[in-house]
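User: Need the bound-state model for flavin-adenine dinucleotide:
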Amino acid sequence: MIYDFAVIGGGIVGMSTAYKLKLKFPEANIILFEKEQELSAHQTGHNSGVIHSGLYYTPGSLKAENCFEGRHELVAFAKKYNVPHDICGKVIVATNESELQHMDRIFNNGLQNKIEGIAKVTKEEIKDIEPFVEAVAGIHVPCTGIIDYPAVVNTLAKLVTEDTVPVELKLNSKVDRVEKGEEYNTIYANGEGYKAKKLIFCGGLQADRLAKLDEVKLKEKVVPFRGDYYELTEQAKHKVQHLIYPVPNPDFPFLGVHFTRMTNGDIECGPNAVFSFKREGYSRTAFSLKDTANALSYKGTWKLLCGNMGYAWMEYRRGFSKKLFLKTLQRMIPSLTMDDIEKGRSGVRAQLLGLNGETRDDFRIEYSQNSIHVLNAPSPAATAGLAIGEKIVKMVQEMV
Ligand SMILES: Cc1cc2nc3c(=O)[nH]c(=O)nc-3n(C[C@H](O)[C@H](O)[C@H](O)COP(=O)(O)OP(=O)(O)OC[C@H]3O[C@@H](n4cnc5c(N)ncnc54)[C@H](O)[C@@H]3O)c2cc1C
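Assistant: Bound-state model below.
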């Protein structure tokens, strides 16, 4: 059997790609490999669960375009297939005057990206939305929402595996070898070879390793950044109604520790962004010699860490100190106490890093011969997943 497409990775990007391929090529034989025993085991299942509006991203960038399109598609999909979600809106709050200039920049960016309904709000108006927040001004973003991303992936999986020509789903199947060929490629998992005409790699935290396996020359490396969450205890849940974000630090690609109401009713605070010693490690002390050696033998990691020593050290300390974490949260909600938060889960972000320590901001998807590689799909790639899948289908058509 020669498959038309093999997709590697059972996160939201891989599964959206399989879904979009099936819509475009209903008769195609597709196989999807996931190394874990379940889907969404990594970034997709460890994220904040936010449907991003798209207001932060550089106009014209892949992030801006795919987030906007992906959000609309995602919400329509969630409505059609009853995936738990809620378009509850969010506020971005400036907690001191020095943040106002950057806040204005974000607002203007949002206008350029045509984000529906965004409005500047005064501190009094913020109080109407979030009574416990102390801020000087903010932006209200009504089209931001929350969703259960693993449920999205499971729904996509159900649709493609129950199709007339079903996608073959291979769990517990780590792709560890690729043999290139003229007519087809052979990929190996669990010692077995599978022939496929086109390969689409959506490996998230393993994207650079999969590129290497497929003989793609990549100057950058994936460097993992862990994000820890705390949860509001039952007694404090009334202090957050929707989603509350700070004005992000413009020097870093992360949005800053925020408050997120989840679809299950929990309220999470986080994530921070700490260099991780393990790509797929979900505790504060997780360590992998291979991953650490890989990251620390790379010039880009040192350039990034040394160039931001103060920030990196502060993030590291905050990763271990509830008191410091609380202090950050109190900038937005001063009445929070130590008893109001308890340790939650963690996630690890894949960030493509250049040799000079520069984080690659935009999504990056490349193709060569018969392979497509999703090399950088950080946030908001969960929101944008369906649009990324669509983009990949267009690339496939260009390749034909
Ligand atoms: C803490 C955190 C918070 C975030 N918050 C948000 C948010 O609120 N909203 C948002 O839009 N985005 C958010 N993101 C980003 C978003 O989660 C990711 O951009 C998105 O999930 C990427 O999906 P993916 O499919 O590329 O990667 P993943 O979900 O990591 O999936 C990749 C899959 O490939 C598999 N794989 C890897 N190598 C192999 C191999 N050799 N063989 C077989 N399978 C393999 C892995 O096991 C994995 O399941 C957040 C991310 C994190 C970490």
